[in-house]
Write a structure and sequence with these properties.
Elements: E1 4-10, H1 14-25, E2 30-34, H2 60-73, E3 77-80, E4 83-87, E5 93-97, E6 101-109, E7 113-115, H3 135-138, E8 146-150, H4 154-163, E9 169-173, H5 183-191, E10 195-198, E11 201-207, E12 214-219, E13 225-229, E14 238-241, E15 245-247, E16 277-279, H6 291-312
Parallel strand pairs: 1-2, 1-6, 2-3, 6-16, 8-9, 8-14, 9-10
Antiparallel strand pairs: 4-5, 5-6, 7-15, 11-12, 12-13
Helix pairs in contact: 1-2, 1-6, 4-5
GO molecular function: thioredoxin-disulfide reductase (NADPH) activity
EC number: 1.8.1.9
Pfam families: Pyr_redox_2 (PF07992)
Length: about 325
């Protein structure tokens, strides 16, 4: 007999794992699909201080390990597979992976988002070698060094302020002549003596032999090109791009409603534009992307999926 799950959850970050926990506890046949390892972005975070009830010295990996343990304890099935397509047209939904095809009465999409790249030469090659997308993970590596933060939104300015606890100097590089961050955050940055600003500027190239050694800047108004070289004594410096996130939603185009930025549109109960399909976490349109909101989304999505099945499928 063909196996049909009550719910297939795509992604095993905090949203997917919370959904898995709530679904499995409700005695739903639950499958969690993840293309890599469990955890999403949070596994790169060295300290989790803003998740309610976090134990002392909680880290991203330790928090995720406990979440995984809970989902398994209640019977959720986990499988490593990369989802490449979906068919939401029928009452039974079909999720297609590289390793197989999975059928379910409902689907929860929790695929998350990834940091948006600057897109310049040298960025990918030097990621983890001076280029970082996580200040809380890597700030310590740049103690007493210089750091450049790229971006002008809330997260960029907040991360720049955080980095001043470690770096001797932080320069915010922004393509416009004023920040987009909330006024209260801007005020903190302008008052911080360790923070400088490069306005109307973008990064053209990042250079280095195994480690960041120089960066090429371009003034977007004048066209002037300048190259900054690492201090001889330092040998390197840090570059932290915070130019937004990219939702991992390409395969859902034309299948469910997305906003202009590619985020999945849901209501307060995590329902998408397709009946029986729900979304949770960073992949959906929302104002705050944090572990605490991701887990809340996951719980709501699972409860909504359970109600949907009760109302649409006879025992």
């Amino acid at each position: 007999m063909e196996k049909i799950y009550d719910v297939v959850i795509i992604g095993s970050g905090p949203a997917g794992l919370a959904a898995g926990l709530y679904a499995a506890r409700a005695k739903m046949k639950t499958l969690i699909l993840e293309k890599n390892k469990a955890g999403g972005q949070i596994v790169t975070t060295n300290e989790v201080a803003n998740y309610p009830g976090s134990i002392q010295n909680a880290t991203g990996p330790s928090l995720i390990a406990r979440m995984v343990e809970q989902t398994e304890e209640f019977g959720a099935e986990r499988k490593k597979d990369n989802v490449i397509d979906v068919d939401f047209t029928g009452k039974i939904k079909v999720v297609k992976g590289e390793e197989g095809e999975y059928k379910a009465k409902s689907v929860i999409i929790a695929g998350g988002a990834i940091p948006r790249l600057i897109g310049c030469p040298g960025e990918k090659e030097l990621t983890g070698k001076g280029v970082s997308y996580c200040a809380t993970c890597d700030a310590d590596f740049f103690t007493d060094l210089e750091v450049f933060v790229v971006g002008g939104g809330d997260s960029a300015v907040e991360e720049a302020i955080y980095l001043t606890k470690f770096a001797r100097k932080v320069t915010i590089v922004h393509r416009r002549d004023q920040l987009r961050a909330a006024k209260s955050i801007q005020e903190k940055a302008f008052k911080n003596e360790k923070i400088d600003f490069m306005w109307d500027t973008v990064i053209e190239e990042i250079k280095g032999d195994g480690i960041v050694e120089s960066v090429v800047f371009k003034n977007v108004k004048t066209g002037e090109i300048t190259e900054y070289h690492a201090n001889e004594e330092d040998g390197t410096f840090g570059i932290f791009p915070f130019v937004g996130y990219q939702p991992l939603s390409d395969i859902y185009k034309e299948k469910i409603k997305l906003n202009k930025a590619g985020y999945i549109i849901t209501d307060a109960d995590m329902r998408t534009s397709v009946e029986g399909v729900f979304a949770a976490g960073d992949i959906r349109e929302k104002s705050l992307r944090q572990v605490v909101t991701a887990t809340a989304d996951g719980a709501i999505a699972a409860v909504s999926a359970e109600k949907y099945i009760e109302n649409n499928f006879e025992e």
